[in-house]
């Protein structure tokens, strides 16, 4: 009969006496980052050309705050219109009706392919192509018409241009989110007697939002920063407001810092909101993932 002998105690590592492995490269990287941060702080504080007193003077200037409000308003309106149109485009791209699918794909390709700045200038000069804008029956009588120069203001051109660009990007984001839901979820909902509308609203959309929210939040931040482009069509946004001031005072750098600070504040607030929405729509998924990990860990421990 063979007797199994226990291995010597030296073969086992005592966790209680274990020490963290030294990683010199981490210490070196940390020191290098600290040096760079100190150098940057020294540059910001001791360079008189930043003119921080001028920055503080104009940070809450009524003209600047008005431009900030216009920037946020443009971003919200463009995102709202883009979300609605993008959702319809996503549904059209997933449709079984080929002409509708082709039209939606062409729309997305065109408005994603043309730079937003070019689109803003084009829509602002729409009166060159259409001196009068009218609605009515195609090739038939007109119900109403307006002078294009009076209708296409900088605000109208900015809303149209930004909304069209956003709708094209959001269409792809929403389409990807809907395709990311397992088809078995739809089959299970139908087996439970859900109508197609109930299946979409209560099963598909909540799961798709987990995929849609992160890129949509990033796109919202992008359109907020992209509103700076409307300054080329004399729209009184945040950038245009500070440009008007520094064209009068010639204090270019301090006024640009004012704009940068306000952009950073708004983007930070939007990022916090985006993180909250991500956690909200990931609650069930995160709980399920944690539960599976605990189950696997328990089963491994029992097997051991």
TrEMBL record:
Its main location: membrane. GO terms for biological process: amino acid transport. It is found in: Cell membrane. It is a multi-pass membrane protein. It comes from the Bacteria. Keywords: Amino-acid transport, Cell membrane, Membrane, Transmembrane, Transmembrane helix, Transport. Residues 68-274 form the ABC transmembrane type-1 domain. GO terms for cellular component: ATP-binding cassette (ABC) transporter complex. InterPro entries: AA_ABC_transptr_permease_3TM (IPR010065), ArtM/GltK/GlnP/TcyL/YhdX-like (IPR043429), MetI-like (IPR000515), MetI-like_sf (IPR035906). The chain crosses the membrane at residues 27-45, 65-92, 104-130, 150-171, 252-273. Belongs to the binding-protein-dependent transport system permease family. This is Amino acid ABC transporter permease. It comes from Prauserella flavalba. The lineage of its organism: Bacteria, Bacillati, Actinomycetota, Actinomycetes, Pseudonocardiales.
